[in-house]
Amino acid sequence: MDKSLLDAKLRENPFAQLSVVVQDLIRDDIVSFSLQPDTRVNGSQIAEALGLSRTPVDEAIHALADEGLLVQKEGRRGYYVYAMTRMAVEDLYYARKVVEGTASYLCALHNGQVDIARLKKMAYEFRDIFTSHDYRRLGELDPIFHKLIVEYTKNEYLVRMYHTLDSAISYHNGRLSHLLVESPELSVPSISTQHITICNAIEFGVPDMAQNAAVAHVDACADMLRRTIPLY
């Protein structure tokens, strides 16, 4: 854990809550593999490295546990970095297909309440990631795009359901984008235009096509994840 990163973040936002900044730093280390899966997180070492008391560090650790990025293990003390299991990946992406597919269907059915221009702008930005190889943006753009589609349905139950997936989706996308930065040859270029296909189906009001395109995209992302990230 690098104190200079803490200092830089506090210079950017002097009014930031200290525990939230520490939470961001630990999260970055988890997503970037600096903290390996199943590693025990040592609050005392983090506090010492950052020159802080234990209080903001403990608050950050508990917040990350609430996100699902840190877990407790039966018979062992402390918190450990979450390790993706094959079952967890299958469960998450099945849930994504159900929610995102339904949301895309509803958006195409009621496309008057959808900001198509905003979605298409993001879809083309997503496509350009695969030509510029700026894979750091993948972990940022993909979840925002799908979250917007869910929110455009104005279905409060779908929105709540998707909110429960937020942390897991961000974690998996962050891990995937980090690995693609390191090994760009592992990318699947066909994924790059799938957001555009979803947008077109929504824009032209074809619900079944929108749903099928969303499900196909989630399947393709899950397949790339299985092939590129070590699962436990």
Automatic annotation (TrEMBL):
UniProt entry tagged with the keyword DNA-binding: yes
InterPro entries assigned to the protein according to its UniProt record, in alphabetical order: GntR_C, TF_FadR/GntR_C, Tscrpt_reg_HTH_GntR, WH-like_DNA-bd_sf, WH_DNA-bd_sf
A GO molecular-function descriptor: DNA-binding transcription factor activity
Domain HTH gntR-type: 16-84
Keywords assigned: DNA-binding, Transcription, Transcription regulation
PANTHER family per record: TRANSCRIPTIONAL REGULATOR, GNTR FAMILY, UXU OPERON TRANSCRIPTIONAL REGULATOR
Name this polypeptide is given: Putative D-xylose utilization operon transcriptional repressor
